[in-house]
Amino acid sequence: MRNYEVMFIVKPTLEEGATLAVLENMKKVLLDNGAKIKSEKNMGKRELAYEVKDFKMGNYFLIVVESLPKAVEEFDRVANINEDIIRHIVVRVEE
């Protein structure tokens, strides 16, 4: 099992309930593939460093997980498909 930091940015135009639904859906993707969530942080709405898909703001989320590579690969696949996520990154954390 390896540790990963998963960060993603959700469109700022979504209502709070829809934004939290995206978060829960992405956590479910990780959990269904055997990941264990160590911590999660809602970093709130922040300004982007540069405009992404015509957005200047975004809702940031950070999830730290312990999992096999298959779980974060599935997260990456689903995040690429999800139109409500404007950016995401998965980083392996060295122990």
Largest sheet: 4 strands, antiparallel
Q: Please provide the count of β strands.
A: 4
Report how far the terminal alpha carbons are from each other.
11 Å
CATH architecture: 2-Layer Sandwich
Unreliable sequence segments: none
What radius of gyration results from the CA coordinates? 13 Å
Strand content: over 45%
Overall average pLDDT: 93
Cross-sheet strand order for the largest sheet:
2-3-1-4
- Outline: globular
Superfamily (CATH H level) name: Ribosomal protein S6/Translation elongation factor EF1B
- Give the oligomer, counting copies of the same chain as homo and different chains as hetero: single chain
Give a brief rundown of this model.
This protein has a four-stranded antiparallel β-sheet, covered by helices on one side. The radius of gyration is 13 Å and the shape is globular. Helix content is 32%, strand content 51%.
Molecular structure report:
The structure is a single chain. This protein is of the alpha+beta class and 95 residues long. Helices cover 32% and strands 51% of the residues. The chain has a single domain, classed as 2-Layer Sandwich (Alpha-Beta Plaits). The chain has two helices and four strands; from the N terminus they run βαββαβ. A hairpin with a 2-residue loop joins strand 2 and strand 3. The model has no long low-confidence stretch (mean pLDDT 93).
Index terms:
95 residues
Give the helix/strand layout.
Blueprint: E1 2-10, H1 16-32, E2 36-52, E3 55-67, H2 69-81, E4 85-93
Antiparallel strand pairs: 1-3, 1-4, 2-3
Helix pairs in contact: 1-2
